[in-house]
Amino acid sequence: MNRKDLDPERSPRAAFGARLRALRDERGWTQDDLAGRIGFSGTHISAIETGRRSPTTRFAHRADMAFGTGDRLVRQGRAVRHTALLEGFPQFVEAEGRATEIRLYEVGVVPGLLQTKEYASVLAESAVRRGAITPEQAEERVRTAGERQAALDRTPPPLIFAVLDESCLRRPMGEPAVMDAQLARLIEFGEMPNTMLQVAPFDMGERRPFNLPVTVLTLPDRSVLSYAESAQQGHLERESTLVLPTLTAYHQLQAEAPSQATSVAMISQFRKGIP
Questions:
Q1: CATH superfamily of 89-111+152-272
Q2: What average pLDDT values come out for the chain (275 residues) when binned by 10 residues?
Q3: Which site in 109, 222, 246, 249 is 20 to 30 Å from 212, CA atoms measured?
Q4: Residue 179 burial by Cβ neighbours in a 10 Å radius (0-12, 13-18, 19+)
Q5: How far is residue 174's CA from residue 38's CA, in Å, rounded to a whole number?
Q6: Cis before residue 213, ω within 30 degrees of 0?
């Protein structure tokens, strides 16, 4: 039987189809076998596996039940339908949800994993006012931030290392109360047993190895991925020979940045300066 080759890098829809086929193949099921278990036709499953049709929430939920994969396909299916997110970002979110270690560096804004709902809403509403996205897409962005944070609330939790450029703290967002609550959230994050929070101050100068945001993920099999964004697209790098230099630079960043205790004290000082 001829099988269409799947390229999961092509699109979120293709990535979902490739995952569905892989899960089915692992169990030795035909498309009709899966169809009988979830109440959809084999033709429907073929269309989803080859990227000709997007999965509905109902389809993804039934497939999760058949495969015993929790809500993984539901979450990945939701990413297929995202329209307000950068190309490449849904694949990153899916990998992030499986990571055992997350290392992130951010410039200008508090990263999504650490944002309060109010802070995320200010960012999304600003994009609506600029005409960059619709109100519905703004709601999607805020919801996605919350879902990413909820996906990390698992046992055991991932280790999260966060280095924030000083600009993340100095750039006000919304009313003073919004920024105050966001800084309080960062302090709470730094007190968690599975986290490490550092601030890279401006006076690090040339000793800072990154000028743009970057995230490095370690998966359960100890493979590493890196993620970076341009204005229009996100890129998830899976080739270890290309990721390892980024990981090395991240370790250098952590070594140069002030300790967590010093960084948390800096954040507390910024809170005192908010009107």
A1: Endonuclease Chain A (3.30.870.10)
A2: 65 84 94 94 90 84 94 80 60 87 96 95 92 81 86 88 96 94 96 95 93 94 89 78 95 96 95 77
A3: 222
A4: buried
A5: 46
A6: no
